[in-house]
């Protein structure tokens, strides 16, 4: 490993390995096939580039994108590492020349597109080379469950028997759910214990979801407020990309665009402009970005939600690769769900539609989640949630979080004393001390006289508190003739005093009368903050924000 560290210093100019890199490199050098799951920008490339330098022979890198290969090979050559690529941009003669260089032992790394492996002649040419290591970049492309399945990735398996000895395999990806990881491991024959999964959490990203914004105005304002920052705006369709591009360039922004409907040349030059900081903003469909290494992207705005969480995290994750604070903003409108549904139904083959629609639903759930958005993402990818991040929109929505442990204990204890066989309405009635006939009928008259939540809560409040305890997993629902509730294992921990329960204060929705003084007040504030005259008749605020707003005097 000492030698590996020297290579890192000498060729790449870095002093120390990042989280996970050393372990992957060590396993790879020992001939152990591994799966490396690291966030975008985590430094996956070095995990195979350093072993490639240290191993005898040639490392083959399977990579799905032409632009990606070209960038990587250029960077390697700049670092004095002999590397080349073979893809459809090369002439037959250039391919021959590259293969000759490879067989003469002049190359350490050779990048190839997976489609090449479908050609028997090409495989035969490869069979004469000595290949100790096979790196599979963007390895999720091999899985049907992944968000970007490429059938030609399956041809990688042909390489396992091409040489007398199967090469060591290193599969790399940034976004893989547990199911995708398992798929990758099976198809590429990697042991479970050889998976190195570093945290998904990107501590410099602040996620937020904005519902019901005027999107165009929001973006214009955002760009004005953040004048010098580079960023990407993703839209779901080419048409939307063109429209946003037109609006922004007319208002004088330095903007580039990218989608599959543009000619290859145009796409390349637009991408270059953005990468070289000549254009500050890139407006694009999801066709843009895989493998792009632009470190100073300060924001990624989704004009429309993407079709699933994997795509979202990958696209949003293009912000802040340099580790500096960056924003990932999703502008949600319910109509966009229809757009994605339509796109899924148009483009997916019938057998995958249901699966894709289920994934779309989890994307919608994310948009409506009340808790920490960072944690919601971690949970989706099968990681444990940590403390709330404190950076995301939900952590900063101004709603106070209160300790409701004691009230939770009261509810849970009541459920236990009632024998854990009633529905939530009945429990709520006992809790507020109802005197109705059912209490006597079921023998709760005495219990209910205590009405342990009486006075503090209305029966509706208690019901919603019970819903909250169910959502938190402290109470569980048993579905029989009618649903009953019981205390879960987690709930028992609360009863025993081993777990605290925190709850956000409720949001107040208030309909303002035309002559409500608050209306004038809000109008003035809005004008000042967002330059908007119109105030919608419904205001949704937390208690705290409302109090603050009322205290604040417009200038
Ligand atoms: P990934 O493929 O995981 O998205 P890359 O391999 O493209 O990420 O690396 C992202 C950036 O991090 C690159 O600019 C790379 O040079 C840099 N990097 C990689 N390893 C290290 C390290 N150990 N120390 C500092 N920077 C690193
Ligand atoms: Mg990469
Ligand atoms: Zn958060």
Automatic annotation (TrEMBL):
From which domain of life does this come? Bacteria
Q: Where is the Helicase C-terminal domain?
A: 218-365
**What is an example of a Pfam family matching this protein?**
RQC
Reactions catalysed according to its record: Couples ATP hydrolysis with the unwinding of duplex DNA by translocating in the 3'-5' direction
Give its E.C. classification number: 5.6.2.4
Gene Ontology molecular-function annotations: DNA helicase activity; hydrolase activity
**Family matches, as SMART domains:** DEXDc, HELICc, HRDC, RQC
The UniProt record lists the Helicase ATP-binding domain at 25-194
- Provide the cofactor list for this protein: Mg(2+); Zn(2+)
Q: Which UniProt keywords apply?
A: ATP-binding, DNA damage, DNA recombination, DNA repair, DNA-binding, Helicase, Hydrolase, Isomerase, Metal-binding, Nucleotide-binding, Zinc
Q: Which family does it belong to?
A: Belongs to the helicase family. RecQ subfamily.
User: What NCBIfam families does the entry give?
Assistant: recQ (TIGR01389), recQ_fam (TIGR00614)
**What is the recorded name of this protein?**
DNA helicase RecQ
Q: Which organism is it from?
A: Lysinibacillus pakistanensis
Quote the gene name from the UniProt entry: recQ
């Amino acid at each position: 490993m000492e030698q590996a560290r020297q290579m890192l210093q000498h060729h790449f100019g870095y002093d120390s390995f990042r989280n996970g890199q050393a372990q992957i490199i060590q396993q790879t050098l020992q001939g152990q096939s591994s799966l490396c799951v690291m966030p975008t920008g985590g430094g996956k490339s070095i995990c195979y580039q350093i072993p490639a330098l240290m191993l005898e022979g040639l490392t083959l890198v399977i990579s799905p994108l032409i632009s990606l290969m070209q960038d990587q090979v250029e960077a390697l050559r700049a670092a004095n590492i002999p590397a080349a690529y073979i893809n459809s941009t090369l002439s037959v003669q250039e391919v021959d020349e590259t293969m000759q260089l490879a067989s003469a032992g002049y190359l350490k790394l050779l990048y190839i597109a997976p489609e090449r492996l479908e050609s028997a002649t090409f495989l035969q040419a490869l069979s004469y080379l000595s290949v100790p290591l096979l790196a599979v970049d963007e390895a999720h492309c091999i899985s049907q469950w992944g968000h970007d399945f490429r059938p030609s990735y399956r041809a990688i398996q042909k390489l396992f028997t091409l040489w007398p000895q199967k090469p060591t395999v290193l599969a790399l990806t940034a976004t893989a759910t547990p199911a995708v990881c398992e798929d990758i491991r099976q198809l590429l024959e990697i042991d479970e214990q050889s998976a190195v999964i570093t945290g998904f959490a990107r501590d410099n990203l602040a996620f937020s979801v904005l519902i019901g914004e005027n999107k165009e105005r929001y973006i214009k304002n955002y760009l004005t407020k953040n004048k010098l920052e580079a960023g990407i705006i993703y839209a779901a369709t080419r048409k939307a990309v063109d429209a946003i591009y037109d609006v922004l360039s007319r208002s004088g922004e330095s903007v580039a665009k990218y989608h599959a409907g543009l000619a290859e040349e145009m796409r390349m030059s637009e991408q270059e402009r953005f990468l070289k900081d000549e254009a500050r903003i890139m407006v694009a469909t999801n066709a843009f970005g895989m493998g792009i290494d632009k470190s100073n992207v300060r924001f990624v705005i989704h004009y429309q939600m993407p079709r699933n969480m994997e795509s979202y995290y990958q696209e949003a994750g293009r912000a802040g690769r340099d580790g500096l604070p960056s924003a990932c903003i999703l502008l949600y409108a319910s109509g966009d769900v229809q757009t994605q549904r339509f796109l899924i139904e148009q483009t997916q083959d019938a057998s995958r539609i249901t699966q894709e629609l289920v994934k779309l639903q989890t994307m919608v759930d994310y948009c409506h989640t009340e808790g920490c958005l960072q944690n919601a993402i971690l949970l989706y990818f099968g990681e444990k949630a940590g403390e709330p991040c404190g950076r995301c929109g939900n952590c900063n929505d101004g709603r106070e979080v209160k300790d409701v442990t004691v009230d939770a204990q009261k509810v849970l204890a009541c459920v236990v004393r009632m024998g854990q066989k009633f529905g939530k309405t009945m429990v709520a009635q006992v809790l507020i001390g109802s005197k109705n006939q059912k209490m006597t009928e079921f023998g709760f008259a005495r219990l209910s006289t205590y009405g342990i939540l009486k006075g503090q809560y209305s029966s509706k409040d208690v019901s919603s508190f019970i819903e909250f305890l169910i959502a938190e997993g402290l109470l569980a629902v048993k579905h029989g003739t009618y649903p009953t509730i019981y205390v879960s294992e987690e709930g028992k921990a609360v009863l025993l005093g081993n777990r605290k329960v925190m709850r956000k204060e409720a949001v107040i929705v208030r309909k303002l009368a035309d002559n409500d003084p608050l209306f004038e007040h809000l109008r003035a504030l809005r004008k000042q903050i967002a330059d908007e005259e119109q105030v919608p008749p419904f205001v949704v605020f937390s208690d705290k924000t409302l109090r603050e707003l009322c205290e604040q005097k417009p200038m």
